[in-house]
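hey so u asked for the seq, here:
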Amino acid sequence: MAQKAAERPPEETLLLWKREQARLRARVVDRDTEAWQRDPGFSGLRRVGGADVSFVKGDSASACASLVVLSFPELQVVYEESRMVRLTAPYVSGFLAFREAPFLVDAVQRLREKQPDLMPQVLLVDGNGVLHHQGFGVACHLGVLTDLPCIGVAKKLLQVDGLEKDAAHKEQIQLLQAGGEAFPLIGGSGTVLGMALRSHDRSTKPVYVSVGHKVSLETAVRLTRHCCRFRVPEPVRQADIRSREHIRRTLGPPGMPAPAQGSVTAQRPQAHPAGSAGEPAGEDGALRTTVEAPAQA
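ran it, structure tokens below
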């Protein structure tokens, strides 16, 4: 998910981050709060959001923050904003949200101010929620700060509280025979931290779903499954696709007109492969995509 920077913040900063995490963690709601969440067919759910950050390869500070909103259940993109940003906080394991979340929170706030009728009723985030070293991953952070139901969907298992991608875990994955099948991720403490979900019949690798905010784990898994055309749920997949495309457009050859910093579109999603190349998993088990800058003439 994240690219590592060489710098490490001073210990005073890390202490402040820990205190802020603890303060915000106390506000996490891990149960269903909306009527549509309790309906078997999600009646009343009309808009699902996806959030993602992609990086420029070789540049630990340049990134593109993307927010998309899709209609539900059609999963058609009705809103998009992608913006280039400069990251000021370095990557530190366990504190990814302090590096990336402010830009995603800003994107949600801009949408809330200019087109409130398109506000998502739930956000799916490329990362973890309570499946985290401090029990407060980027999906929790974003959910609490935006006050939106939020779900963490990671592509790799975060090995925390005794969870390991060992032979036993791989055997459990092989037992998932069809899309929608899942097994709980039980830490050494006995706590269920999330679920490993086979999100699609054609995908053999699971995604790791965890509670972010204002949603139960059972609902988070059901909704993630409903949002999958491929392995990765469509809101997250489209946010990743569009952030990478925005980087390529922005870093085009000299002489090309610079695109606007943000864009809003309503269009049919383009067909792209289900997988995408990325850096090794960050602290929250997600894969943050890096994009090669186009060669300059």
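DSSP finds six helices and nine strands in the chain. The longest strand covers residues 59-71.
lmk if thats what u needed
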